[in-house]
């Protein structure tokens, strides 16, 4: 699952994940991401800190409770304050990533199941 507000960045990440053999559900909003979580269980999720309708921290909490591994994908690393502190405990992938970095994050995420 990919939660990304920017359509071009979402498409790029979807294509890269598909190249690694993943089927991808994409959501530009928290509401759309929650609908995906209500209807299926992703193997792995990639979340930008902010979706079109606000912080993805609520989705991050749901993923954590469901023990679904997830990765922060953002231009900026989250700061340790408020609800966004949940993002500090997860692997981070800069939006300017190389495919080898994406592959390393996928390997780390899927090998440490279930994440705390």
UniProtKB/TrEMBL annotation:
InterPro entries: CheY-like_superfamily, Sig_transdc_resp-reg_receiver. This is Response regulatory domain-containing protein. GO terms for biological process: phosphorelay signal transduction system. Residues 1-110 form the Response regulatory domain. Keywords: Phosphoprotein. The modification 4-aspartylphosphate is found at residue 48.
